[in-house]
Design a protein that fits this description.
CATH superfamily: Extracellular Endonuclease, subunit A
Radius of gyration: 19 Å
Structural class: alpha+beta
CATH topology: Extracellular Endonuclease, Chain A
Shape: globular
CATH architecture: 3-Layer(aba) Sandwich
CATH class: Alpha Beta
Largest sheet: 8 strands, antiparallel
Number of strands: 12
Distance between the termini: 37 Å
Order of helices and strands: EEEEHEHEEEEEEHHE
Number of helices: 4
Helix content: 10-25%
Mean pLDDT: 89
Number of domains: 1
Low-confidence stretches: 1-14, 254-262
Strand order of the largest sheet: 1-2-3-6-9-10-11-12
Strand content: 15-25%
Length: 311
């Protein structure tokens, strides 16, 4: 399903919010990134395995490598990203959220930049992004801006700025970034064990060779999340999988029609998400509330209250 259409000039209407200036590589040395033991030290949840993306991961530059560290992990404040070379998109962004320490008073950074620790040409800062009225796309956060904004003010401020790296972005239509997608993390935090009040969220695009092409860029049709938390009802480590389609929000190709289902939001087994994304999500599938569901089963969601949180 490859097609192109010119939806106005390739002008980034938000260019004033974008900078070509890069921070020094050594300014990232204090970033700890994603913590596998954040939810339960006895049951650590590692970053997803690369799976089919193993040969497509973007490595860090030599001057950004740390002895013994994962050479493909971009560590930020409270979250980490791994990038696809062939698509110039994150294959996932994994974030730890501490609901007790969240700082909602942090001013939105709102300045997009590249990360100097990987090749600049693999980071699309401009093409296809801008005014939706011209058919252009929003820079859609994978790790949501507010999610890593916790801790003292300096740490939370740094976390906010970190989310505005283009490595944490995939093209999204503005109307897509709402509803259940927007409310999901908050809803799960409200249902966690208050003694922990911690959630891990892993987010990414479902990248396919059949993705439609706009402005010379393949645009993911669907996005996914895996959430991990201590369930307030059972007291057990719990995970769930979620998928949202933006197909109904995409501009239509000339002379062609999209074919899609009658729903945008679904709860899906993590095992099925692993198959769709090509990632190894086995560590999360073990605690999935839909672990016993048959392959390919998806549950339609009309609101966050429709989510299954226990087996």
């Amino acid at each position: 399903m490859q097609f192109r259409k010119a939806f106005g000039p390739l002008v980034d209407a938000g260019a004033f919010r974008v900078t070509e200036a890069q921070l020094p590589v050594d300014s990232y040395e204090n970033r700890d990134g994603y913590d596998p033991a954040f939810i339960d030290a006895d049951k650590p949840l590692p970053l997803p395995g690369a799976g089919k993306w193993a040969d497509d991961l973007v490595p860090l530059r030599d001057d950004a490598l740390t002895t013994g560290a994962d050479p493909y992990e971009l560590k930020y404040t409270h979250f980490s990203v791994k990038m696809s070379r062939s698509r110039g998109l994150p294959i996932f962004s994994a974030c730890n959220i501490d609901g007790k320490l969240v700082n909602r008073d942090i001013k939105r950074t709102d300045v997009w930049r590249r990360d100097p620790r990987i090749e600049s040409q693999l980071q699309n800062l401009h093409e296809g992004y801008g005014d939706e009225r011209q058919g252009l796309f929003s820079r859609g956060h994978m790790t949501r801006r507010e999610d890593p904004d916790w801790g003292d003010k300096a740490t939370a401020t740094q976390a906010d700025a970190d989310t505005f790296h283009i490595t944490n972005v995939a093209p999204q239509r503005q109307g897509f970034n709402a509803g259940i997608w927007l409310d999901l993390e908050n809803y799960v935090l409200e249902t966690t064990d208050r003694n922990d009040y911690r959630v891990t969220v892993i987010t990414g695009p479902v990248i396919s060779d059949d993705d439609p092409v706009y402005y010379n860029r393949g645009i993911p049709i669907a996005f996914w999340k895996v959430l991990a938390f201590v369930n307030g009802e059972t007291g057990e480590l719990t995970t769930l999988g979620y998928k949202r389609s933006q197909l109904t929000f995409l501009p239509r190709p000339t002379g062609r029609a999209f074919v899609f289902g009658d729903f945008d939001d679904t709860q899906i087994s993590i095992a099925s998400l692993g198959t769709e994304t090509g990632l190894d999500l086995a560590a999360y599938a073990d605690f999935d509330v839909m672990a016993g569901a048959g392959p390919g089963l998806e549950i339609r969601l009309n609101s966050v209250s429709d989510l299954y949180l226990v087996r």
